[in-house]
Design goal:
By secondary structure, the protein is α+β, with helices and mostly antiparallel strands. The protein has one domain: Pnp Oxidase, Chain A (Roll), CATH 2.30.110. Strand 5 and strand 6 form a beta hairpin. The longest helix is centred in the last third of the chain and has 22 residues. The radius of gyration is 21 Å and the shape is globular. InterPro entries: Pyridox_Oxase-rel, Split_barrel_FMN-bd. This is Flavin-nucleotide-binding protein.
């Protein structure tokens, strides 16, 4: 794709609150790469079932052909799953020809609860992204293990190097990686205080009894709890530093959203 943003098509163009819509690679990619769970929707071949399937998955935006590519560049989405799962089995077929299995992927951060004078103006501060693309299985061994490492380290920094690697032949065989070529995507971001009607803001009685504002919201990682089988006395530095950074980053983004300022990029 040329340029620095996804094309605007009928399916990904933001229509309500158009000013909140963003199409640049960096915004979309940073949202996807900083959420712990992606929700992936895909068609099912059962004619009697009219509903598309949806499952939570681990995934990461990156480029195998250009590993040094930044978030502001066009990237592929890699999804991790078990070889016999329905999505992974469907990924080996292509109902639309040679392009791959069509997927819709959703990612969302909640940054705050926006409390207004009336229920109608209550909202959330949030960062969300929707992506559309075609998935194909990764068959190249080097690319597959590269993607597995990327996804593992997206859970906790440097976790791959701090475990038993490389994976065994059985682990490699039972794991499937889908590579999603993104066709289009968009993000929608809401930040700032509540927006109330002028008439309500002039109502002194209402304002005297109704608290308005934003409750900053972010995911907080707690103190690690060792497994009964754990033999390492001290929590490793790669975990400690990860927890510190993520907790600080989450709080900072939630506070920035209260002020109506853009979140920091990972």
């Amino acid at each position: 794709m040329a340029g620095s943003e996804y094309p605007k098509l009928s399916r990904n163009t933001i229509n309500r609150y158009k000013g909140r819509g963003k199409y640049d690679y960096e915004t979309v990619n940073s949202i996807v790469n900083s959420v712990p769970v992606l929700h992936v929707s895909f068609p099912t071949p059962e004619e009697a079932d009219p509903f598309p399937a949806m499952i939570p998955m681990l995934g990461f935006m990156a480029s195998f052909s250009n590993p040094s590519a930044s978030l502001s560049e066009s990237l592929d989405l890699y999804l991790h799953g078990y070889i016999s799962s329905r999505l992974m089995r469907l990924g080996n077929s292509s109902p639309t020809g040679e392009e791959g299995l069509p997927l819709t992927v959703a990612a969302t951060h909640l940054d705050g609860l926006v409390l207004a004078l009336t229920p109608n103006h209550h909202s959330y501060n949030y960062r969300s992204a929707i992506l559309h693309g075609f998935a194909t299985p990764v068959t190249d061994a080097e690319e597959k293990i590269w993607a597995m490492e990327k996804i593992t380290n997206s859970v906790v920094d440097d976790r791959w190097a701090n475990t038993r690697v490389p994976p065994t032949k059985t682990e490699m065989t039972s794991t499937q990686i889908l590579k999603v070529r993104i066709i289009d995507a968009s993000a929608k971001v809401r930040a700032g205080p509540p927006g109330d009607d002028r008439a309500d803001l002039k109502n002194d009685e209402l304002r005297a009894k109704t608290w308005i504002g934003v409750i900053p919201t972010w995911t907080t990682f707690g103190q690690p709890v060792p497994s009964p089988e754990n033999r390492v006395a001290k929590v490793p530095e790669h975990i400690v530093s990860f927890l510190k950074r993520e907790n600080e980053e989450g709080q900072k983004n939630a506070v920035l959203a209260v002020k109506g300022e853009p979140s920091s990029k990972e």
